[in-house]
Design brief:
Layout lengths: L6 H18 L5 H9 L18 H8 L5 H28 L2 H4 L4 H31 L4 H4 L2 H13 L12 H8 L3 H31 L1 H10 L2 H33 L4 H12 L9 H9 L6 H32 L3 H13 L10 H24 L2 H6 L8 H20 L53
Helix pairs in contact: 1-6, 3-8, 4-6, 6-11, 8-10, 9-13, 10-12, 11-12, 12-13, 14-15, 14-17, 15-17
């Protein structure tokens, strides 16, 4: 239970949070606070962001198939929308700024009520500005172009809503990944149904998430005014459920489009998609370049070549498994982050020493990856001679394996010298060398990491297909 002496401190903190929003005169001031306090974003982060910008013109042209004469008309509509939006938004900011003097002596709860009223009214006005603009655009379209209206809405939602993702893979746009894969016209035609289904499913989940983001604005403000972490986190967890649905739609899309593209393009598409979804998982690894460097040595024996080939195959298989476990760890732990971050912030505010770490399951999965690197670096060292190890670019002069072997050799030499005829064991003992301890870090003279080629993404024939995994 909080001690009585701390109540004035908490009250002052709450008042500063409330007054901080008014000081900047707009909801954007409160968005960073809510993010930091409850471990995630809410709709406040985009309340004062226009729904349409001049740079969106190509989206309208492409989705609706606009004719040349329609482009300048749409440009005028966009300019008018921009003027109307900024005028209305400035009015809201001015109104909020006018509360500053009144709020100085008000309670935090009252301050939040004052902020909430213009924000709620603004969400209604912003929606009307959007509808008026789209109505003007629709009025200039032919019947054929109107038939493409749902396609436009999906394209706009992807453009505006995808960047608001927080989970790994939540902000993917698989239509762009398909384009980067450059499938043949025949393969693209075969995948068109899967791509369209992905767009529809993604749009439904994005719409549900956007609704949850907007609905959380008032509960977030109220939780901030009361310093009510439980309510704030509960609001974030409601948003997180919708985020998981977006991520599930993304992963279902990856699997469906991969299969539709066929064996020639499907695996390349999947590799690109997963690299974008989990860049922290598919970062360049330090072992493949070492194995490739070893295989390029001119003085390898046939036995060494065979062993290196087998090592490369086994490493690829094991790396796939480690990466799959790491992706699963991100899938499970990320949706739980708002509560974990909020609890860590609470402990820190109470004076506890808090170490910023990943969730335990994620830390274990990351450590397993580092352990794999150490294991295969040592296995590679066993295959090569000391001179060959020196010749491999990026291979440390003394790897953990070398330090271990050299220490053992010195110990054996010392024992042999002590047992040799004519040698006294009382004249001093050989000083044991410090034994190397394999670690997960990189050596300082290791070769810089190279860009990862999709073919090396660990998603070859041995990998498992992507399956959507929901988090309860």
């Amino acid at each position: 239970m909080t001690s009585p002496a701390r109540f004035p401190i908490l009250s002052r903190i709450r008042t500063r949070l409330a007054l901080g929003a008014l000081a900047l005169g707009c909801a954007l001031a409160s968005a960073p606070m809510a993010h930091a306090q409850f471990g995630g974003r809410s709709g406040m982060a985009s309340m004062f962001t226009p729904d349409f910008l001049p740079r969106d013109l190509p989206i309208f042209v492409d989705a609706l198939g606009l004719e040349e004469w329609q482009r300048p008309v749409l440009e005028v509509f966009l300019q008018d929308y921009d003027t109307n939006f900024n005028t209305a938004a400035d009015g809201v900011r001015s109104k909020m700024a006018s509360f500053k003097d009144v709020a100085a002596g008000a309670s935090p709860e009252r301050v939040i009520e004052m902020i909430q009223e213009p924000l709620v009214a603004w969400t209604v006005e912003k929606k009307k500005l959007r509808e008026d603009f789209l109505g003007n655009v629709r009025g200039t379209l032919s019947e054929t172009q109107v038939e493409n209206w749902s396609r436009l809405e999906r394209a706009l939602r992807r453009e505006k809503s995808l960047p608001l993702g927080e989970l790994s893979g939540e902000s993917l746009d698989l239509t762009l990944v398909v384009r980067e894969t450059q499938p043949s016209p025949l393969a693209l035609d075969a995948a068109s149904a899967a791509i369209e289904q992905y767009e529809v499913s993604l749009d439904e989940s994005l719409a549900a998430r956007d609704t949850a983001l907007d609905a959380a604005i008032a509960p977030m403000l109220q939780a901030m005014s009361r310093s009510d972490n439980n309510s704030g986190v509960a609001a974030q967890e409601g948003i997180m459920q919708k985020r998981v649905l977006v991520r599930n739609a993304q992963e279902a899309g990856i699997a469906a489009i991969r299969d539709a593209l066929g064996s020639e393009y499907g695996s390349n598409f999947e590799a690109r998609a997963l690299q974008k979804a989990f860049p922290q998982v598919f970062r360049p690894d330090p072992i493949n370049p070492l194995i490739e460097g070893a295989q390029a040595l001119p003085d390898l024996t046939d036995d060494q070549k065979n062993r290196l080939s087998a090592l490369s195959t086994q490493y690829g298989f094991d790396l796939n498994g480690v990466r799959a476990n790491l992706m699963d760890a991100y899938r499970v732990t990320e949706p739980l982050e708002p509560r974990r971050r909020t609890e860590m912030a609470r402990q820190k505010a109470e004076g506890a020493t808090v170490r910023l770490t990943d969730a335990p399951q994620l830390e274990q999965a990351k450590q397993a990856r580092e352990d794999l690197y150490v294991k295969y670096r040592n296995l590679l060292a066993e295959i090569l001679t000391p001179d060959q190890r020196m010749a491999v670019p990026g291979f440390a002069k003394e790897s953990p394996y070398d330090a271990e072997k050299d220490a053992s050799a010195r110990e054996r030499a010392a024992e042999g010298a002590a047992d040799a005829p004519g040698t006294s064991s009382g004249g001093g003992s050989a000083r044991p060398a410090m034994r190397g301890t394999p670690g997960g870090g990189k050596e300082s003279n290791e070769k810089p990491e190279r860009p990862l080629d999709p073919a090396d993404a660990g998603l070859g024939p041995t990998s498992n297909p992507v399956k959507p995994k929901a988090v309860d």
